[in-house]
Write a structure and sequence with these properties.
By secondary structure, the protein is mostly beta strands. 0% of the residues lie in helices and 25% in strands. A three-stranded antiparallel beta sheet has the order 1-2-3, with no helix packed on it. The chain is globular, with a radius of gyration of 15 Å. It starts with 21 loop residues before the first strand and ends in a 28-residue tail after the last strand.
């Protein structure tokens, strides 16, 4: 695994027309994703590193209920 980038991704469904607080709780071997103070997903595997990481949030705005299309 050295030198290779790995990604773990989770998706949450919520009413994002309203204000929310988003968070991540990290500890060696475990990541918890929070929405409004509640855990909505977690990852607990040996692939969660014990060293420093960075967080990348994808925040694109897509049309609701129309599917994907090329622009």
């Amino acid at each position: 695994m050295a030198g290779k980038r790995r990604a773990i991704r989770r998706t949450v469904k919520a009413d994002f027309t309203r204000w929310h607080t988003v968070g991540v709780r990290w500890s060696p071997g475990r990541i918890q994703y929070l929405l409004d103070g509640r855990v909505w997903a977690s990852v607990s595997t040996a692939r969660v590193p014990a060293r420093r990481m960075h967080l990348a949030l994808q925040q694109q705005a897509w049309p609701c209920n129309f599917g994907w299309y090329q622009v």
